[in-house]
Design brief:
By secondary structure, the protein is of the alpha+beta class. It has five helices and seven strands, in the order βαααβββαβαββ. It has one domain: Gcn5-related N-acetyltransferase (GNAT) (Aminopeptidase, 3-Layer(aba) Sandwich). It has a seven-stranded mixed sheet with strand order 1-2-3-4-5-7-6, sandwiched between helices. Strand 3 and strand 4 form a beta hairpin. The N and C termini lie far apart (32 Å). The chain binds coenzyme A. The site of coenzyme A (COA) has 22 residues, from strand 4, helix 4 and helix 5.
Length: 151
């Protein structure tokens, strides 16, 4: 049975995780920033951001960047999410999202989790709807904003 987990990014694994983005198709590269860029975002903003590698057993297969909303400390954002193409369509994205949501809902005063995606990203939309995210009607930088209310 496959074991999907979120792991810390460190000196040993960061290059491998960064390079997963090179495997994305040209189409999917338009959906998410390169992991190396996201890691630099994290590096320069560690007060508000967090990042994890996504593993299947001991194989690194994806990346997630998340952070607190700077205007509203009750809202957390899942800012970037990617699964390497060879591992897509096997439920890894869904399991990783469930684990990130479980982690963020334990953050102090967390009342909502937001996520955004470009309108062309039908796969992401489907996945987020499956997990209970609802359309907020907001569009930010051309991306549709979905929200999961935490009660
Ligand atoms: C979006 C992404 C994270 C989904 O991860 P994944 O591991 O492939 O997703 P899962 O296998 O867990 O699929 C969950 C559901 O979404 C659907 N789905 C995922 N990707 C899809 C796609 N490209 N097209 C259609 N449906 C898709 C699956 O069919 C599944 O639905 P089902 O249970 O009804 O069959 C992954 O495709 C990815 O990294 N894409 C490139 C980067 C990206 O778009 N990131 C999101 C930016 S907002």
């Amino acid at each position: 049975m496959t074991n999907i987990s979120l792991r810390d990014i460190n000196k040993q694994n960061w290059r491998t995780i960064a390079r997963l983005s090179d495997q994305l198709s040209e189409e999917q590269r338009k959906f998410v920033a390169h992991n190396a860029i996201s890691m630099l975002d994290y590096h320069y903003d560690q007060d508000t951001l967090g990042q994890k590698a996504i593993y299947i057993d001991d194989t690194p297969v994806g990346y997630v960047l998340y952070g607190i909303d700077e205007q509203d400390a009750t809202t957390w954002w899942i800012i970037r999410l990617m699964i390497a193409p060879a591992y897509q369509g096997r439920g890894v994205g869904r399991s990783a999202m469930q684990q990130i949501i479980a982690m963020l809902r334990l953050m102090p005063n967390c009342r909502a989790i937001d996520i955004s995606f470009v309108p062309a990203n039908k796969g992401a939309k489907h996945l987020y709807e499956q997990l209970g995210f609802k359309d907020t009607g907001k569009v930010e930088d051309g991306e549709i904003v979905f929200r999961l209310d935490i009660t």
